[in-house]
Each structure stands twice: as C-alpha cells, then as structure tokens.
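Revision sheet: structure tokens.
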Amino acid sequence: MNPNLENPVDFDQLEDRKRFFIFGNDDIRDKLHPMLCARFPTRFYGFLTEKRVDERHADSAYSFRYWEEALPLLGPGDYVFITRVIDEVMEGLVDRGVRIGLPFNIRTIYATYETPTFLHFCKTWLNGRGIALDIGGNTGLTGAMLAGFCEHVHIFEANPEMERAIHGTVCGLNNISVIMKAVSRTSGTAVIYPVGTNNTSMVARDKVDPVRVPCTSIDDFCREEKVVPAVIKIDVEGVDGEVILGAERTIAAHRPLLFLEHPLANAQVYNTDLELAEEALALLRQTHRLLAYPTMDQLLPAEAMGMPLERFLGEHTYYPVNVAAIPKE
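Predicted:
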C-alpha cells in the first residue's frame, strides 16, 4: 500500500485543505460528492477521470477533467479522494504535493445510525494522545476511527474470517495493530458462534458452527505488553460484563475512558447473567461517571446524547444502546 495514501475518518482532519477533488467513476463518488459539498461548500472543484470524457455531464454541474490534463493545475493545498487505487495516478498526485485519501471509511461513518454516536464520543473526549483498545473490532471501522484520535490502536477481533476485512479497512493507517483474539474475563481459549452478518458471540442463542479461538483479558494483555490504555471501546455481543471484569486492574490503575454497549441491555438480548452485568456496571461506577450514548435509531430528544445515565433512565423507558464511562475528577 502506498505510504502516502491517507484514510481519514472525520472531515475535521481535512480542514486545512483548500480544494477537494474526487477521482473515480463509481457509486462511492456519487455518495461522497454531496457530503463534501455540504461540509466544504466552496472547496469542491470537481471530478478527475481515468479516461477523457466530456467536461460536463448532464447529471452534474461540476467539471469532469481527465486527470493527466488537470495534474499541472494541482498542487499543495489540494486533496483528492480516490475511489480506485491506480499507482500512476497516485504517483503523479504525490509528485505535485497533493494529498490523497480513501473515501470508504468516511462515507460509511456518516451513512450509518451507529458510528455517528461513536464519532461524537471521540470528538468530545479524545485528544489525539494515548493508546486505544478496540475490543470487538468487526470490520475495523471503529478502530480506524480511533486511529484518528489516538496515538495507537490495538484492534481485537475473535472471528478469523474478519481479518481480511479489517486490514482492508485500516489500510493507509500506520498506527494500528490487529490482534485476532477474543477478549473475556480470563485468558486461554474461547468458543465463538456466528451472530447475524459479520458478528460472532460467545453467548449466541443458537450455538451452531462453533469455532475455538485464542482468548485474552484486558488485564493480562496490558500487563504482558506493558500497555497503558487511554480509551477502551467494547462491542462484544453479550459478554460486555466479562470483558469489563477482566479489566478490573487496568481500570483501577489507569482510569481509561470507556465506550461500550449497555451491559444490562445486552444481557437481556443474549439471555446472559444480569447479576454479572450489574457487577460490571458497579465496578465502573467506583471510578467513572456513566453517560448515555443512544444510537440514531432510538427516537429521543437531541439532548439525550451524553446525558448522565441515571437521568436518562429516569426520563426514558429503555436503555441507551451505548454507555460512555468518564473518569471522575
């Protein structure tokens, strides 16, 4: 992968760019275009094409320019999102001092009902420093997001079938390590089962197609690798409590920020131990204050985002999907 290729996760990272272009001719281009115009309304300067085409298309008010002919007019301050990686094009842009990036992560983040909530958490609480642990990495998207707000990210994913997808998502990001292990309360091995699209769980209702995988706890990993996490994200399909209790020493010693699915809500969905989920929340409350982070499919007032969890539960009849744990002063 070209070391000059970027993989932004937030438009704020591109605020210093003067002009934006898109190279490519697929549906990603058409989805990214209005997003760029909305965020930078006077900075989008049209499309670069692989082949010569009419300068204007009937379905666009923006120019379509053959990339080689446009190249002499580009330089430092310009940014090109590429939807198709072509070495010749990338080398020409880099030689002109143009920054280039993949659009797939940023388009996905803003197009879902879940990741805008996590992006809000990252922009509110993370400062660009420290190490992040992404427990339950799935396709690598949240790990890629954390990479834009932390010095280094360790992505943990139990499902061996997701390894290729993760590496595809995080390409262009040099501050990520991928660890293909489950995470729970103790180290050793774990059995996981398929749950829906791309997901696996140790506590699936239908225990079919089991896969045995290596497993670690956060406490063991941090001790063995001498890692001091600044933030831990947990999305593990029903074993949230086990992961938190397996991080007891780390949480007490280093008081990281945490972002996780609500353990009690998941205990109900996966029919797991409610007392264990309560124990995990009680552990967090000793050193952290808990905030509600509902997802965009939960129809709630805007001020519910980041509301103290106890207040949220007093005003609403169901759990927020996510909870943030913020260290007490």
